[in-house]
Amino acid sequence: MAYINLLPWRDAARKERQKQYLTILTATAVISFFLIFMVNMLYSARIDGQMQRNSYLENEIKVLDQRIAEIRTLNELKKSLQQRMSLISQLQGSRNLGTQIMDEIARIVPAGVYLNQLEKKGTSLLLIGKSESNNRLSNMLREAEESELLSGPYLEFIEAGKDSVSLLSNFKMHLTVKGYEAVQGNDSPATPAGGRAQ
């Protein structure tokens, strides 16, 4: 007679497989959760580190912006000081300019030429006077061209004296002062009394 097992072994086997499946599923879920948690912690740590670096860089950028602003202020102050120094140098250089001009005028004006008026406007000089002959004026022009202080002599006109008895001719001459820039406030004309300059 055949052996028949009446125990519910299929149900027991099914329950055992379900237990194994649930165990594996639970273990997989726990391991997955642990891995996700670890990855999340890793990226959170990286994000926090990057945020700290960004904050550090922002603070350093603010410090550099302040230094740049200070450097710009110092550059502006430097330019202002350089302009003042340049102006002081111009003033120092032109302090004795009037005396030097008068000395040079006295040197280039030959005998027989008389100055009635001398005006200075900026770097321009205007000479008005009388001359005994045109040759003396030519000599004066040559001396002005060779001068180290004066340049660009230009004779605007020369005309015979209105008095028929007078042998003197009236003239008007322009000159330029070399190497000096006009300083505002020092452009007042000088008008010496008429007389002979040699």
UniProtKB/TrEMBL annotation:
InterPro entries tied to this protein: Extracell_DNA_Util/SecSys_Comp, PilN
Keyword Oxidoreductase: no
Sorted UniProt keywords: Membrane, Transmembrane, Transmembrane helix
Pfam families: PilN (PF05137)
Transmembrane segments: 21-43
Keyword Transcription: no
Top-level taxon of the source organism: Bacteria
Name the UniProt record assigns to this protein: PilN domain-containing protein
